[in-house]
């Protein structure tokens, strides 16, 4: 039979956009109740007036998900932006997201691991192993989460130590390009009141799927590991403490860009094809072509990006270590919870921005991040007509940046600015917040939800030094740069829930979320002018939705509709620079936007063997009011009002089918999934140049499949799997170096492998 979902306290299964669950039973048994902690207490998913997508560890494994960056592929109206293809994932939920490349910025969808906030988007590529559940909360979460949740919140809940029984799990997989993954966990009860859990993940590959034509070698090897250990101790019947320690490293080679030809090889001006709105890699040359006759035209690259002219330069060298201490104590009238988090994340990224064989834009980013946070929370006991939650949060984080940008082969830039530049600065952030939430069942089947939060935050940019390399020496361009961004803001939510029947929830809400302002973390070529702080952005969200179950609870149909009044949108503005004689980008508040959309999810389990799921979404996101202008690559100055938001496709959907066949003491499961995204757009389409380049981010669909043979008792299983089985060619991002080079970052082609898992 199809694996059932676990009920309290550890729900399992895939929950789609409006809280759908996979479950099974005899003769279309009801879909089992799913319990989440999206509102910082255990609740049935179908009774929470929030659009949520949730995945348990088993479902993540079946979908081939090993990193948090893979999850958006399976959630409509959720995209992933990564300036570097791999290494700095930024979630874009319902079109709300900031496409930034600097580690000092925060995403619009905050990521929490066991209730500890990750302060930088570079920390969001964490490996997923021994995970109980992932919850993707859509829409502003300004009451309970507050900080940087104008788009939503992503919660990762890891498996906790269990005092009741010994257990262990081992998984080994091998796939294309020699990709090997070993993952395991051991749960060891020490006594009736204490337990230890240790888990780890190791991933290596023999080769990569790309070939650099610069030196002819294969590229894209993976080399990463992560481990976690947790100790749970109960002191009497009222107090429980969890100490969790973790560490990880990622030294993988990352995606190489595919250079895009823009220039006439004779005159050096824009070629006729790009001015006509099309790409022609046989007639249009890369910037590098003009400096060395041995450099080849971009047409020698493969269309899918398997062969690229980019130098074999792109790689990570990340290390992290951290810990969590959570203490819960049951009072007579409430539960007091303390959560302390510490994190050290050393981010190292090398990236070839020019997409060609030569040093025309090589970036070396080095960011050391230290984070400390503390939360104190009081929650009322369950039962009664009203429940409440109140808390205080304090956080400090410090980032030390040391970044090089090297252009030694670009004769024009060398003559103007030297062989390269170095940027160093320190950013300190301090945040304190108080929040509260009340749920009141004021009448039979009616519930009112009120949440409010006050946040005070300060960011300081200090010790900013901008150096130029020339003739083997470093010369100060700007020194002792500093800036500051302060924030004091109220956010919250008012929600109304109505349950006309036990299997139907109708909800409506008005909420306000925000993303903090900040300071541009890139090279300040215009000095202090480039470091003028941009203000916070706010979203006023209006949402209605329904969650229903039919046919004796074997069919679930859920949906939502929303409208966002989006104020002071953060984004990039371009302007011509007299210093570099090129168009440069910097962060600013672009103006006001409006987002609207609908989402629909259907889950049907017609019998014990078959399960079908479909989720779809429509979205419109547009800048509707702005006095900002930007400079195109053709030099024209263009108002940005009326432009669509980037990485906000009009349509997206996902499909999943699962069929289980009993074979005596064994069971055979066949599964297929498909995820499709409409055209995503990119940056501001200011002229025919940008429209043509960002137009390469067109629609694509990814097909995956898995065949599993397992014993009926669930002790072992063997599987064969594949992803992108149609070998869909698509671009994950299109970017430029702010000088003369553009390139596209390709998505991974078809892959496949086998896996064996054993449970003790």
N-C termini distance = 21 Å
- The percentage helix is under 10%
Number of helices: 4
Mean pLDDT: 91
The biggest beta sheet is recorded as: 22 strands, antiparallel, barrel
Percentage beta strand: over 45%
Q: Give start-end ranges of low-pLDDT stretches.
A: 1-26
Global shape: globular
Q: What's the alpha carbon Rg, rounded to whole Å? A: 26 Å
What is the number of strand segments?
A: 41
Q: Assign the structural class, choosing from mainly alpha, mainly beta, alpha/beta, alpha+beta, or little secondary structure.
A: mainly beta
Report what the structure shows.
Helix content is 3%, strand content 55%. The strands form seven sheets. The chain has a 22-stranded antiparallel β-barrel. The protein has a six-stranded mixed beta sheet with strand order 1-4-9-10-7-8. The chain has four helices and 41 strands. With 760 residues, the chain is mainly β. Strand 37 (700-711) and strand 38 (716-723) form a beta hairpin. The model is unreliable at 1-26 (pLDDT under 50). The two termini are 21 Å apart.
């Amino acid at each position: 039979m199809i694996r059932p979902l676990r009920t309290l306290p550890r729900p399992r299964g895939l929950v789609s956009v409006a809280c759908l669950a996979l479950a099974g039973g005899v003769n279309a048994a009801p879909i089992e109740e799913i319990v989440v902690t999206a509102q910082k207490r255990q609740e049935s998913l179908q009774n929470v007036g929030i659009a949520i997508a949730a995945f348990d560890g088993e479902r993540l494994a079946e979908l081939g998900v090993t990193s948090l960056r893979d999850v958006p592929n399976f959630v409509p109206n959720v995209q992933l932006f990564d300036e570097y293809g791999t290494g700095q994932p930024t979630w874009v939920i319902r079109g709300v997201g900031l496409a930034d490349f600097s580690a000092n910025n925060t995403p619009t969808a905050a990521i929490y691991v066991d209730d500890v906030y990750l302060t930088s988007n570079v920390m969001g590529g964490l490996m997923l192993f021994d995970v109980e559940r992932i919850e993707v909360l859509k829409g502003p979460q300004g009451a309970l989460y507050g900080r940087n949740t104008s788009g939503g919140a992503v919660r990762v809940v890891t498996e906790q130590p269990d005092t009741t029984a010994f257990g262990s799990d081992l998984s080994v997989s091998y796939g294309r390009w020699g990709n090997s993954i070993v993952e395991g966990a051991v749960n060891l009860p020490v006594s009736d009141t204490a337990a230890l859990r240790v888990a780890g993940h190791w991933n290596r590959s023999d080769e990569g799927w790309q070939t650099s034509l610069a030196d002819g070698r294969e590229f894209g090897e993976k080399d990463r590991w992560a481990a976690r250990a947790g100790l749970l101790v109960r002191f009497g019947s009222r107090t429980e403490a969890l100490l969790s320690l973790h560490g990880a490293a990622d030294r993988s080679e990352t995606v190489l860009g595919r250079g895009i030809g823009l220039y006439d090889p004779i005159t050096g001006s824009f070629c006729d094809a790009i001015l006509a709105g099309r790409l022609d890699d046989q007639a249009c040359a890369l910037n590098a072509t003009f400096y060395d006759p041995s450099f080849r035209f971009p047409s020698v690259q493969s269309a899918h990006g398997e062969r690229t002219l980019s130098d074999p330069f792109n790689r990570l060298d990340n290390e992290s270590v951290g810990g969590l201490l959570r203490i819960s104590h049951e009072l007579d009238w409430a539960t007091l919870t303390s959560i302390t988090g510490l994190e050290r994340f050393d981010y190292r990224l090398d990236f070839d921005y020019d997409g060609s064989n030569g040093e025309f834009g090589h970036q070396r980013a080095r960011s050391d991040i230290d984070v400390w946070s503390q939360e104190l929370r009081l929650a009322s006991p369950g039962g009664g007509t009203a429940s409440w939650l109140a808390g205080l949060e304090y956080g400090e984080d410090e980032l030390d940046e040391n970044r090089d940008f090297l252009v030694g082969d670009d004769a024009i830039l060398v003559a103007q600015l030297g062989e390269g530049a170095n940027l160093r600065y320190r950013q300190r952030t301090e945040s304190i917040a108080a929040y509260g939430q009340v749920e009141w069942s004021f009448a039979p089947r009616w519930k009112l939800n009120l949440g409010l939060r006050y946040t005070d935050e300060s960011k300081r940019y200090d010790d900013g030094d901008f150096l130029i390399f020339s003739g083997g020496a470093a010369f100060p361009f700007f020194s002792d740069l500093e800036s500051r961004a302060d924030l004091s803001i109220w956010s919250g939510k008012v929600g109304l829930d109505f349950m006309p029947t036990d299997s139907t929830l109708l909800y409506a809400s008005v909420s306000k979320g925000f993303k903090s302002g900040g300071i541009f973390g890139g090279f300040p070529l215009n000095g202090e002018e480039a470091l003028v702080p941009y203000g916070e952005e706010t979203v006023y969200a209006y949402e209605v939705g329904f969650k229903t179950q039919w046919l004796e609870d074997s069919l679930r149909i859920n949906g939502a509709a929303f409208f966002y009044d989006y104020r002071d949108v953060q984004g990039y503005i371009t302007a011509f620079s007299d210093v570099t004689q090129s168009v440069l980008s910097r962060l600013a508040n672009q103006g006001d936007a409006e987002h609207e959309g609908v989402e629909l999810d259907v889950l049907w389990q017609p019998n014990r063997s078959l399960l079908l799921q479909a989720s779809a979404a429509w979205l419109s996101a547009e800048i509707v009011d702005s006095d900002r202008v930007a400079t195109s690559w053709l030099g024209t100055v263009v108002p940005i009002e009326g432009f669509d938001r980037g990485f906000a496709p009009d349509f997206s959907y996902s499909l999943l089918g699962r069929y289980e066949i009993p074979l005596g003491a064994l069971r055979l499961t066949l599964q297929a999934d498909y995820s499709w995204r409409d055209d995503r757009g990119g940056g501001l389409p200011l002229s025919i140049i940008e429209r043509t380049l960002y137009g390469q981010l067109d629609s694509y669909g990814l097909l995956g499949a898995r065949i599993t043979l397992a014993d009926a008792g669930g002790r072992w299983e063997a599987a064969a799997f594949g992803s992108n089985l149609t070998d869909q060619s698509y671009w994950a991002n299109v970017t430029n170096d702010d000088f003369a080079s553009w390139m596209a970052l390709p998505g991974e082609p078809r892959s496949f492998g086998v896996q064996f898992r054993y449970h003790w």
